[in-house]
Design brief:
single chain, mainly alpha, globular, 227 residues, 56% helix, 0% strand
């Protein structure tokens, strides 16, 4: 079951910050559904497979032996892969500024940047990002900031001028994963998010509670938990 209130929060925030075209709104909603099922959460860094860890962070782990110490060791993993860059300069910053909210805002620089865009200080207490209204606003300004780089790459005329739904979804996934994301990461996330498009596209009546088919919910749950 997807929480209707949180879907509406994100949809309203997107509109408030100027993202209005149905293609891209649906794409972002599908991406957020894939990321969090519209539940605010801390990033799950508790990987249980060296193969999965190497696939997600290929530049950090080229062998199973390199990945093994970080299996079921989430804090150490976050500090290793997120530490020492993008403002994470102090010991423990990788874990402190790991992904949060509806879409996984990550790194201290991003906490500062997007906090400033919504006029909130979120660096002192990063857990406030898991407040749903604030998480919705942060998700919206994140895409306001990152989608322009996707416009040229995917042949759009502007952030509200995507030629079709599939192109908009690819752009939203790429924006979420980052400009330098691997093809594996983009394709894996694209497959997961695409399943949500029929649901979020049909969400047109405020207050309506959407129910996912049980098989779909189990499939997505498995994708989220397979680490």
């Amino acid at each position: 079951m997807l929480p209707a209130g949180n879907i509406l929060l994100v949809k309203s925030a997107l509109n408030k910050y100027g993202i209005t075209q149905p293609y891209i709104v649906n794409a972002i909603l599908a991406t957020v559904a894939k990321e969090s099922l519209f539940q605010v959460r801390n990033e799950n860094m508790n990987y249980t497979s060296t193969a999965r860890l190497r696939a997600v962070f290929p530049s950090y782990f080229t062998t199973d032996a390199e990945a093994a110490p970080y299996i079921k060791n989430p804090e150490a993993l976050a500090n290793y892969v997120y530490g020492g860059k993008y403002g994470n300069n102090l010991p423990g910053d990788g874990w402190k500024y790991r992904g949060r909210g509806f879409h996984g805002i990550t790194f201290k620089n991003n906490y500062q940047k997007y906090g400033n865009m919504v006029k909130k200080d979120i660096t002192r207490n990063p857990d406030v990002v898991n407040d749903p209204p604030l998480a919705a606003d942060l998700a919206a300004v994140y895409y306001v900031d990152t989608l322009p780089a996707m416009v040229k790459k995917y042949g759009a005329d502007g952030i509200n001028e995507w030629p079709d739904q599939e192109t908009a979804l690819k752009a939203a996934i790429n924006a979420t994963a980052g400009a330098g994301a691997s093809a594996y990461t983009i394709n894996w996330n694209l497959e997961a998010a695409r399943k949500f498009l029929p649901t979020v596209s049909a969400f047109t009546r405020p207050g309506k509670l959407l129910i996912l088919p049980a098989a779909l919910l189990l499939t997505v749950g498995a994708l989220l938990l397979t680490r």
